[in-house]
Task: structure prediction
Amino acid sequence: MPGGTDQTLRPFLWRAERLFDDTEIVSRTSEGIERYTYAEYGDRVRQLANALDELGIEEGDRVGTFCWNHHRHFETYFSIPSMGAQLHTINPLLPRDHIRYIVDNAADRVLFVDPSLLEALEPAVQSPEFDQVEKYVVMASEVPETDLDAVAYEEFVEGHSTEYDWPEVSQDQPAGMCYTSGTTGNPKGVEYTQQMLWSHTMESLTPQGIPMDEDDVVMPVVPMFHVNAWGMPFTATAGGAKHVYPGPSPQPEDLASLIDEEGVTVTAGVPTVWLGLMEYCEDNDVDLSALDRVIVGGSAAPRSMIEWFDERGVELLHAWGMTEMGPIGSVAHLKSGLEDADRETQLEKRSKQGLMTPGLEFRVVDDDGEEVPWNGEDFGELWVRGPSVTTEYFERPEADEEDFEDGWLKTGDVVTVDEDGYIKIVDRAKDVIKSGGEWISSVELENAIMAHEDVSEATVIGVPHEKWQERPVAFVVPVEGADQAAVEKGVMDLLADEYPDWWLPDDVVFIEEVPKTATGKFSKKDLREEYADEDIFEGSAPEEAAPEDAE
Ligand code: ADP
Result:
């Protein structure tokens, strides 16, 4: 027999409002720190639904947001899906052409925009792709100077009833949407049904996910335009936690003061965010004592980061995921059998991408289509399936054939799995360096280099080579004031200790900053473009640097 109701987001809000009515939602906005309770939140969510209703927004309509992390954005998270409409979060850091494409492709009828992002949006708005947008709502109490015909959010919701009769929304109704930044061509849209978001929330809430409880204070630093801030606004609400939103472009000092003043226990973001906070903490007196765990994902968490947080009594949970899966897929919790293992073993496990969260299945498939054994050595492409994993792209049947098979999502990540079931990403399929027919993991080299104390960022890419097809070159950002020659020697010695000769980079290039993608990851594509004219890309390598020299 089926259950009494469909799997939708609405009961999470209902529970938080009724059980934790006076728990706070705190937000750093351009207008200062704002705070209210779940009780007021619920009222505002329903006021917003009434305002959208008056505009004629109906089940199946898409509503876009172009916003950072704050309470108003969070109000759209429950209001829009619970009306049966679809919340489409747009990444404002994408190139303008991509923004045009996705607003048009998603056919957004209303756009919520942050005041600080108006300037970025205005030039795009003039194009025909925006013709179907009927209303712009600026996330503030007043509309700043703009060419856009817009209304302020507070004016938009003001005067509307705090009651709203939510419709019975089907679990198959699309509730959310996010585009993944395609490496080639246009971004690909991923739709999340009510049931997918519900499942993702429940998977996250399990002890082996990224659980959040009513005594937690949750601060998603990962932007809400990026896969629903890893689902945290939903997970935190389902758990009844206090929310803290760090607002537009938060800097390390903003994060440090929110952690301290609001007593943040759980936070999450990409490694670059934490590198910034770590550096800030070295120079300033920051109280991190409230902090219990930091979820790090999006790209690999360097081992040195795990150790840094360990030293401060904070657990770093390394997580892996994708836009296509809502996004959390695996988390590197220590299995109970490893609790007494030596520190080295524990760190090795925790540096991996971890154990698949409950509800999901995976397989690792080699070039011949065979599943590879779980021995920590053989690798292949990771395939994933489960109730929170998409099985198609929005209006992209041609991509579907390549990326999905019998309900499995082909992730494009190349991984090994060890005897304990820990997944380790060896590389993106496209970033793996192929030298003399053998594979070199750029990710491993990067992590090893970033463990050097005088290195702040590093990335390794394959450059073309006449004899070996490709050879690794390291791009390194030294910490301020470091002596480059010493850093180069230090890095090479460190790598030589751990890796065979043929893995060692042919060159170390010092740069000021590693270019980042719209989601804050190292962008190898931009790096390649930036250094395209350098000799390095003509390639030359010492003769001894060959796979057959490997021991
Ligand atoms: P994009 O960054 O292209 O918009 P996603 O945000 O969906 O797309 O990125 C998903 C990809 O990010 C994964 O397939 C994987 O390659 C990488 N990734 C995510 N988490 C991790 C992690 N913990 N370690 C290494 N790579 C990761």
